[in-house]
Amino acid sequence: MREALRLVGLVVTLLTAVLWALLAARTPTTTYHVVPLIVASAWPAIDGSVGAGLTQRRSVNAALGGFALAVATAIVLGVKGDLDGPTLWATQGTVAVLVEHVAFAAVGALAGFIHAVRTAGTAPGGE
Questions:
Q1: Residue of 108, 109, 29, 39 lying closest to 74 (CA atoms)
Q2: Which helix (H) or strand (E) holds 10?
Q3: Whole-angstrom Cα distance, residue 8 to residue 111?
Q4: How far, in Å, CA of 113 to CA of 127, rounded?
Q5: SS3 letters across 22-59
Q6: Which in 4, 77, 93, 95 has the greatest CB count within 10 A?
Q7: pLDDT digits (tens, 9 = 90+) for 79-111
């Protein structure tokens, strides 16, 4: 059962990234500002919450994995031309949206890591 719990965060992260890609491809002029934050934070945060036996090293790896997936998804969407919406600071263009998404992904990875470290020991099955 513990091995299955270790995959929950990864699966949710991958599904969120796929959903983001589908939404962006369908409506390229809409910017989904917080999705990179969710993608980057989901893996470590869920792993910490379900007590997937996290160590600090595994928390760092999950946070970096979520960050890398969020950034890679944003880059692919940018190359495809699916990031044509505005940023929060009202600029337009793929590069500005990529910068915003990378910043949100970094915040999400850090938040997910902090949550994982704080909750891993108190979650059911945590160490």
A1: 39
A2: helix 2-26
A3: 18
A4: 16
A5: HHHHHCCCCCCCCHHHHHHHHHHHHHHHHCCCCCHHHH
A6: 77
A7: 998 988 888 877 777 788 899 999 999 999 999
Chain center to CA of 96: 19
Instruction: Name the pTM for this structure.
Output: 0.87
Domain parsing of the chain, residue ranges: 2-120
- Give me the amino acid identity at 67: F
Backbone angles phi, psi at 92, to 5 degrees: -115, 155
Distance CA 36, CA 17 (A): 8
H-run or E-run covering 111: helix 94-120
